[in-house]
C-alpha cells in the first residue's frame, strides 16, 4: 500500500506542477490573462505541499525521484493537452527516467542504507 500511495502522490505532484506551469504559460505566452497565471501559481503552490505527504522521510530522495516523474509526466501532458507526438527517443528517455524513479524510491534497502 505504501508504494501505491507514493505513486499516487507522484502523479498528483506532476499534475499540479505541470498543470500549474502550463497555466502560467497560457496566461503569459498565450495572453490569456492574469487569472490563468494566478491559477497556475496556486497549482504550483499545491505541488509544493504534495511531496510532504510522501511516506519516505528523505526530501532529497523524493525530489530526485520526482524529477523522473516530471520528465515522463511532461511528455504525457504534451501529448494529451497540446497534441505533441513524442518520437522513440522521447519515449526511451521517459522510460529510463521512470526506471530511475523505481530504483531510487522502491529498491530494497537495508537498515543502514
Automatic annotation (TrEMBL):
The membrane topology noted for this protein in its Swiss-Prot or TrEMBL record is:
Multi-pass membrane protein
Q: Name the UniProt key words of this record, in alphabetical order.
A: Cell membrane, Membrane, Transmembrane, Transmembrane helix
Membrane-spanning parts: 33-50, 62-79, 91-108
The superkingdom of the source organism is Bacteria
Q: Name where it mostly resides.
A: membrane
The places in or outside the cell where this protein is found are: Cell membrane
Q: Which Pfam families does the UniProt record give?
A: UPF0060
The UniProt entry, under InterPro entries, shows: EmrE-like, UPF0060
What family does the Swiss-Prot or TrEMBL record give for this protein? Belongs to the UPF0060 family.
This protein is called YnfA family protein
Specify the species. Micromonospora tarensis
Amino acid at each position: 500500500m505504501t508504494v501505491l500511495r507514493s505513486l499516487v502522490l507522484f502523479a498528483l505532484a506532476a499534475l499540479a506542477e505541470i498543470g500549474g506551469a502550463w497555466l502560467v504559460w497560457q496566461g503569459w505566452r498565450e495572453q490569456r490573462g492574469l487569472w490563468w497565471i494566478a491559477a497556475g501559481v496556486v497549482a504550483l503552490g499545491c505541488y509544493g505541499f504534495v511531496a510532504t505527504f510522501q511516506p519516505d522521510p528523505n526530501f532529497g530522495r523524493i525530489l530526485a525521484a520526482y524529477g523522473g516523474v516530471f520528465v515522463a509526466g511532461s511528455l504525457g501532458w504534451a501529448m494529451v493537452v497540446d497534441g505533441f507526438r513524442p518520437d522513440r527517443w522521447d519515449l526511451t528517455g521517459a522510460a529510463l527516467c521512470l526506471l530511475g524513479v523505481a530504483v531510487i524510491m522502491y529498491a530494497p534497502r537495508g537498515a543502514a542504507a
